[in-house]
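Workshop exercise sheet. Pairs work together: one partner reads the sequence aloud, the other fills in the structure field after running the prediction. Swap roles for the next sheet.
Pair: D.N. / O.F.
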Amino acid sequence: MRNFDLAPLYRATVGFDQIADLMDRVLTQEVSQPSYPPYNIEKTSDDAWRISLAVAGFSTEDIAIEQRENALVITARKADSDEEKAKTYLHRGIATRAFERRFTLAEHVRVTGASHENGMLHIDLKRVVPEALKPRRIEIAGPNTVETKVIESEPTTEV
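Structure field:
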């Protein structure tokens, strides 16, 4: 396994700590990543995404979705029922084992909704940038002007 020194990146940049931390975290993780449950990440618009997980065998009550700071955590645990314990399987190909799947989200990305239908869990995400962080155009004051004023707000998709 390779080790990369990210110290030069920290010395030459300001405010990119999260990107460096993310790269460091990705590079230090084990090579084998869990593949259960399978999922898709779809870009639905410039500032919106949809994560779809195949969760066959789980009911809506078995699944929990949490957003903690910049992380989305999806957990599922199948409740053991007496009816399920009484069953004898000749072949069990539908996995209903417990899982926890984590996704790291960029700043200002929020969960806008979730749905569970036909064995698929869909989670919709959207980047919502606060007004205070949106770019503003500032008028340049002349030699006799003391005050500056905002001319207009320009919407942008960049963060």
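Discussion prompt: The beta strands are 39-45, 48-54, 63-68, 71-76, 99-104, 109-117, 120-127, 136-138, 150-153. What would you look at next?
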